[in-house]
């Protein structure tokens, strides 16, 4: 008995140990797995956030150089004996510089150590004036006996292993007799080309004399024949500055009274083509920017302005006129020298008080201002690559480093109206390249922003009603057996590649819409009415007849009515187009309003991109409708409301948060779409909300331009700025959508 009691007493003790050890191990494994899953999910979420922040940081890093300021600093300084050069040139590699002084000495300096490698006098007599022909690698001077000499220079490049060596060489001089009376010519200009040279100057009696020397080579004998043309040009007053363009088509002048004068040298007349008042202050300096269309004018009071010749292309009989495009803040002293870059619209301006400024014409930017390192500088030259400059003064030569990577980038240039050379008025323009080296990149992102919003608008106009109403009908009215077919089919549409949709839209849909545009409008307006008519027809059928059909059979009637009615409307549209629009709506549109119809336009993009956005909005909206609690629907129906009243007044408000999220997700999908808008539009960056023409979006522009953008260039970084704008736009839209969704959920949570 005792042993039995002992065994009974011990048995309960063994059972808890045998069965309690296993649940403890399971619990520990469950806790371990829970922690592991929590860690994996947390790491995944943090990884997503880190990836997004990394993309944002990368975009900001690539865009940031657009905001950095330009810098000008002294790189080297040399002591130079003799008369300071009055005109300077720099070779493209910045290894040598050439200058000509009033004592008639042409010198070439090595910029590494300031050593003079060439020193050759032109004349024993002093010179009256000297200029540098920077784009033609030549120096020109006017002598005191009425002649002009042009001294070409050559920079012979050779390689010794990997070492590049530049050897300067003086070319054959050209002499032009400007004043037969042998008087001094203190104001002159010169130009040089392969066909010949030209010089213009103000002679003793104040007359402007133009002399052209043209050389023609006989290909059979090799004989070179030189011909000379001499003309006297009328001027409202004796000029104080003269300047040729490189093509020798225009001669510009400035008078002491502040007038600007231009002669068209391609015309036989001697009268000025344009005369304008540049201001009350006398003009001290003139310069032409690259492209020879914009004239930089420096005044005695320190003012700087950009002038161009403008005219109305529609009325050429009115001629041209000078217009002031841009102005800059005054410098402290009279502008004495202007040196223009050969790469872009950047120029340097030197004033009499020793101030030096770096400017960019198109964006009206003052890139840098400071004191010139050479006191009393007599000449200044801009390096051909725009990365340096040279200043010369009494006893000193100073080499400057110019760090100016993105002068054309500014908030105004990227988002505002800019008055470009040759345009009649300021405008928003995107044009990143051209066939001319003198082309000025136009990088306004505003047309691309407008194009992005335009494409999104026309796609959502089609997608939102179809997707939301389709989701409402599928969720609330359609038979469950049809739901199991319709919903996956619509969601399967999202798997179609956008490149396929863009291909079909550009090559098949666009020509079809062009020839049947009126029919398309009639069908688009008629389909909702046909659907309502089909529904009314179904309800008019007696209930005992309708009851014989399976629920959902009404869709067959609706489909038949819509298809048959659409065919009738399409045929009617063709008849209307022939009778009312002369057989072609695009031609009628242009004849009556002047508006052009582009085959690849916003209508085509709206249809194609709407087709891509519908599945996303439909799926999210259908889930929102389906997730409405059944007790709300049942309570409404129990109180006597019809099915339609219940959906409109109970289900729709409750699901509004999800519907809004669906629309915002569709908006983000449309904003970032690339291939459809790339293939289905003309990719024309214009600011026009008309549905009949094309556009260019930010995403499509990135896809088109990035393969051709030079690494690290302004275009390259501007494209990254466009990507940053897309990122910020979608982020703001999603944030706004989430805030609105939360407010709607809180509002209708009490239902």
The H-level CATH homologous superfamily of the largest domain, spelled out, is MetI-like
Strand content: 25-35%
Question: What is the structural class?
Answer: alpha+beta
Domain unit count: 3
Radius of gyration: 39 Å
* Poorly predicted runs: 1-5, 11-20, 313-317
Architecture (CATH level 2) name of the largest domain: Orthogonal Bundle
Helical proportion, percent range: 40-55%
From the N-terminal CA to the C-terminal CA, the straight-line distance is: 71 Å
Descriptive report:
The structure is a single chain. The longest helix is centred in the N-terminal third of the chain and has 62 residues, at 2-63. The chain has 16 helices and 31 strands. The strands form 8 sheets. Strands 6, 7, 8, 9 and 10 form a 5-stranded antiparallel β-sheet that branches. Strands 1-29-28-27 form a 4-stranded antiparallel β-sheet, with no helix packed on it. By secondary structure, it is of the alpha+beta class. The chain has 3 domains: 72-84 and 286-407, YVTN repeat-like/Quinoprotein amine dehydrogenase (Methylamine Dehydrogenase, Chain H, 7 Propeller); 87-277, 7 Propeller (Methylamine Dehydrogenase, Chain H); 445-748, Orthogonal Bundle (MetI-like fold). 41% of the residues lie in helices and 27% in strands. α10 (602-626) runs antiparallel to α13 and α15 (698-705) packs antiparallel against α16. β2 (85-90) and β3 form a beta hairpin.
Write the layout of secondary structure elements.
Blueprint (H helix, E strand, L loop, with lengths): L1 H62 L7 E9 L5 E6 L5 E6 L3 E6 L5 E6 L5 E7 L4 E6 L3 E14 L2 E8 L3 E4 L10 E5 L3 E7 L5 E10 L6 E10 L5 E6 L5 E6 L3 E6 L9 E4 L5 E6 L5 E6 L4 E8 L8 E9 L6 E6 L5 E6 L3 E6 L4 E7 L7 E4 L5 E6 L2 E8 L7 H5 L14 E2 L10 E2 L2 H31 L3 H13 L5 H18 L1 H24 L2 H4 L7 H27 L4 H9 L8 H25 L3 H9 L4 H12 L1 H17 L2 H6 L17 H8 L8 H35 L3
Antiparallel strand pairs: 1-29, 2-3, 3-4, 4-5, 6-7, 7-8, 8-9, 8-10, 11-12, 12-13, 13-14, 15-16, 16-17, 17-18, 19-20, 20-21, 21-22, 23-24, 24-25, 25-26, 27-28, 28-29, 30-31
Helix pairs in contact: 1-16, 3-10, 3-13, 4-10, 5-10, 6-8, 10-13, 11-12, 13-16, 15-16
